[in-house]
Specification:
disordered N terminus, alpha+beta, 165 residues, 7-stranded antiparallel sheet
Length: 165
Amino acid sequence: MKTRLFTLLLATLAVPALAQQKPTAQFASNKTAAPAAPMINFESQKFQIDSVVQIAEGGQFLDHASFRGKAREGKYWVECFYNKKTKEILKANYIFTTDSTNFSKCFYFKNNSVVKVFDNNTTNYYQVGNVVLTEQGTPANAALAKKFSELITDTFQALHAGLFP
């Protein structure tokens, strides 16, 4: 009886808290929108996003596939980690091979929407709503955010279709 009451109490408290969370959107394709000011509660959102990333990194039961392709930035090889049951991509690690240099971009997703980008194994960027933010919570360079957006625009639907026929 106590277990049922505890479960009911926990569900009563957890459901409203979860309902208040807004799902993140993919990179904005609207080029005319001005970047929004950094979020006041960026630290809590950053913590939530980093938790999603830890799940993707530690997901030993995730399905795995890799593809080759071509995008505006050049030829790439992408390694995807996904959940076949929910049709959700959790991580896509792109490795680009160009004539001059090789570089990588690792995208992390929640509900098939970008939440974090690890750019060239050096810098983390966070996607909060339609805004790309640095680790400090300041808006990222607009040109860089546009490149991230273009890569997802060019490749995401094909990856999703390849993983979930």
